[in-house]
Request: fold
Amino acid sequence: MITRTLDFFGGLYQLARLAVISRFRFRGAYWAWRRYTAFGRGAPQSKMEVARAVVEYGVWMHRMRTGR
Reply:
């Protein structure tokens, strides 16, 4: 449980870091590519699905950077 919580907050940190690195240009080339690779040509069903996928991506980034 504690590990999942730490991963969650680590993922939020990684997402914030990525936002700063991309200069908050969420409609830029990187974020367009990220949306395409995450969802393909189909649009996500809801904003909740998008939010869940973004958080999962952040947690994955955190785990990759910490070596877990």
